Each structure stands twice: as structure tokens, then as C-alpha cells.
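User: Look at the shape:
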Amino acid sequence: MRSRPTSILALVLVLASGCYHATHLSATWHDPNSRGLHFNKVVTVFVTTDEGMRRSVEDELVTKFPNATASYHVIPNAAGADKETILQHMRAAGFDGAVTMRVTDVSERTTYYPGSYWGPSYGFGPYWGASWAYPYSPYAGGYVSTSQIVSIETQIYNLQDDKLVFAARSETADKSKVGSLIRSVMRHINEELKDNGMIASSAPQPNDVATAHAGR
């Protein structure tokens, strides 16, 4: 997997237009022996060297889980925390669950559209308008649509057992704001968790309904 500075997310969140669905889960896994997500206190973690982005994403994740706390309140300097004692530190603070996110890749996806529409009723005027809307250019190489795709890894841990219980890889395009991107990812993850019986289904909240209409 290619390594990229996570601060690049701030640059690619202003994405080019395209027809790729905003978010889809490219891979998921859950512990078949897990009894579900019945945590009393959850810590949310976003792995990045950009402290402002870390706080923004962790605060957004807090809104998606009951009794959740952003990790920056507990571990201000996450990169400098001792990995050998971090689990004990979280347990001592009363956390029994953790939701983590990190950007794993940023890439471009290009789609080519030939733009040909043939048929007996297709007249010269419509052809003229459609063809000149996207004329061939030897410099541009034809009519293409390019989207920036942000891949995010989301993992959920049971801290009592120090065990991974859920993991997902998502791909998101055409989201202009961090909050919108995280809400799109979490909407799909929540659906996956419900399908796996890891969380109970509930009536959609007003914010969820508004977000759903914004597109996936």
C-alpha cells in the first residue's frame, strides 16, 4: 500500500465532478463471535499529523456513537503516546470500546465518455449541441471525467478483550467537506453493522434523512 501524507486529505476533499457514487464499502469484516457493540464508553480516534483535522473528524465520530469521547481530550499528543501503555491508559479512563479511522490512499479515477447517440429520430441540431458540448481535443485526449477517491480504513475494537470486532475499507468521491465525507462513510458502516446484527436498527434521525438525500 502506498504511503501518503494524511494532510493531503485537506487538498483532495475539494473533488472534481464525476459519476462515481460518493461512498461504497470495498471490503468489510466482522468478528462472527462478537456479541455486538455494547460499549459503555467509546473513544474515537482519527490518525493524522494534522491536529485540526484530527479534532474535526473525532468530533464528527462522537456524534455517531453513544457515550463517545474524542481521543484528543484524553491523549492530546497521540503520536507521542507510549504504544505499550496506551491500552492500559484507555482502560483506566473507563473506555471499553474504540472507533478508529485513517486515510489509507488517495487516488484518481478516470472515466471516458464517447458521447455518441445514434437513432432515426436524432436530428442534426441535437447532434450539433451534444457533440460540441464535448469536442475532441488532441491535447486533452477526449472527453473524460476524473474523480479523486479517498480510501478510509475504519476499525472498531473491544478494549476489554483487546480485540478487533469490525473493520471496513471505504472509498469516497466528490465530497467537498470533511464532515460530509465522514457522515457518508459512517452511514454505510452503520448499515453494515445493522445487517450483521452488531447494532440494533433504529428510526432514521432528521440529520440522517437529510444526508441520505444528499446522495451516497
Remarks:
- Strands lie at 23-30, 42-47, 68-70, 97-112, 144-158, 163-173.
